[in-house]
Amino acid sequence: MEDSRVKRWGCLKFGALLAALVLAIGAGFWFLGDTVKSQFRGPDPVTVAQASLQGLREQNRLSTFAARYVAVVTSKQSRLGMTAEKTLIMPGMVRYEVDLAKLQQKSLSWDAATNRLTILLPPLEVIGPDVDLDGIREYSQGGLLMRFTDVEKQLDAANRKSGQQELIRQARGPTPMKLAKEATRRAIERSFAMPLKAAGLDARVAVFFPDERPTEDWDRSRRPEDVLANKW
């Protein structure tokens, strides 16, 4: 009887050890499989995009386009039956910039169904003008009135103000604004597409400005913070 009990106890111990060994081997295979799976799955596109976003924000401002314009303005005044007139030719340079510090996580939207990263940029800003003082030319008529009155100072002040306004007006024209947006768009697309490609991710990048209407994909896309939280 005693030998039978010892044998049963020995069998139970052996069975328990065998079960523990099987569980340990199974856990090891599960861990190995999960590790291999995560390696083959590759990096998370949202993580890569967020790293690119942080790098852009640290640049503070992005200027990818500049243009030179020439304003031609004329001012005229009449006093004491006489007329004085001055024409100002004012060249100036204008830059187009985007404040990258305004980019936030909600500015990015990832659509896993189409592998598309959509970026909504801050408004394009026109900076300047930087007037070329050496290139300024002036032409005047009515020298007698300007010699004996302060008309010339008033004409000069009016021309300088009008000249700068004219340079900005030209800079905000449809064609230069379109060119500046396209240059900025290409630069931002490269900034996000290159890291994604380097990580082995086949993703499309679409960039929009606030005054543009994104496609419907923008409304259906997931924000990075939602992806990280694993929810729609």
Automatic annotation (TrEMBL):
Which residue ranges run through the membrane?
Answer: 12-32
Q: Report which superkingdom the organism of origin falls in.
A: Bacteria
Q: Keyword Membrane, does the record have it?
A: yes
The protein's matches in Pfam families, at most eight in alphabetical order, are given as: DUF4230
Q: Does the keyword Membrane apply?
A: yes
Name the UniProt key words of this record, in alphabetical order: Membrane, Transmembrane, Transmembrane helix
The name this protein carries in UniProt is DUF4230 domain-containing protein
Q: Which organism is it from?
A: Sphingomonas psychrotolerans
